[in-house]
Write a structure and sequence with these properties.
There is one protein chain. Helices cover 46% and strands 29% of the residues. It is built from 11 helices and 15 strands. Helix 4 (112-119) runs antiparallel to helix 5 and helix 8 (255-262) crosses helix 9. 20% of the residues are buried.
Amino acid sequence: WETILAGKEWKGEFVNKKKNGELYYESASISPILDEQNNISHFVAIKEDITGRKRIEEKLKKNQASLTALIENTKDDIWSVDSSYCITTLNSNFHRNFLTAFNVSLQIGDNLIEVIEGISPDLKTQWQARYDRALQGEQFVEIDHFNIEGVPNYIEAAFNPIYLNEEIVEVSVFSHDITKRKTAEEALRKANQDLQVHVQQVESLQEKLREQAIRDSLTGLFNFHYIEEVLEREIIRFQRRKKSIGLILLDIDKFKEVNDTYGHNAGNLMLKKLAKVIKENIRGDDIPCRFGGDEFLIVMPETTTQVVFDRAELICKKFAALKIPYKDQEMSATFSAGVIAISPKEYTRDQLLNFVDQALYQAKNEGRNRVITYRGEL
């Protein structure tokens, strides 16, 4: 009333009461009307019922209060920036975590990119790149950085562009620290990597043990136990396929004299040299083994008597021509061999070995340093 009585217009809002006692809101403009003596003669009031608008405003205030409480009480960091990277919203979590990580306090209105650039130009480039990618539609991104203590931190952020008239005017961001998860993932990756290395080591060791189980340690050829198993399998296979199999059984002539004359080390050297000659002069699918002592057996799949004989002759001549230096001396030796090549039919492994052993025995009896084909009854 002071304003009106002073001759001025008053504008305002107030609560009024209807005849039925119901309260409502009014917006009013009251102006004094002056007479010729410049005295107030009466008043003119323009009023509007604004109850609907006030109720909407009250509801908006409640919603805003709920939203503010939600933003403040969520465990995520919530913040937003406008198109100039200026902060328009930030909750206490984001403020606290940013302060902890970089020892920098943020407030609404700060240019986030400029603040980050002051911390680290590289970090500024990374954050701006993430922001620009968000503007291009990439919603979820991971951001990694080092805090003030040099410890790596990882953040997962969801960028949500806000549009007005089809233009992005603001970007709201929900982010949370995933350092523990990333550390656990890295630990798991490292554990898997270590496990793979361990598995490879175990497999390598198993392979070495398997090789040791089937190889002769002196010559590197297959050993007696392996060839027994393989020969049994090969005989069954060739019986089924009706194919022939060849065997060469050879024995160094007068090997005991080599050991007696030069010593066991010299004898071992000779065995290794013979093994080398055998390996260098057999076919790719032939199976050589040290059968025991100074005896060697060669299994030759899918062959003929002539091929087996010629191969044994070749190895015999190559070995006989070999000069083996030992200390200040030179050694040489020959061997005798028995060979056979037949279709296994119903013959057993032991029968075939007996046939080829008879041929070897005959080669020894006929003067050594020769190859004899089994001539017995089959």
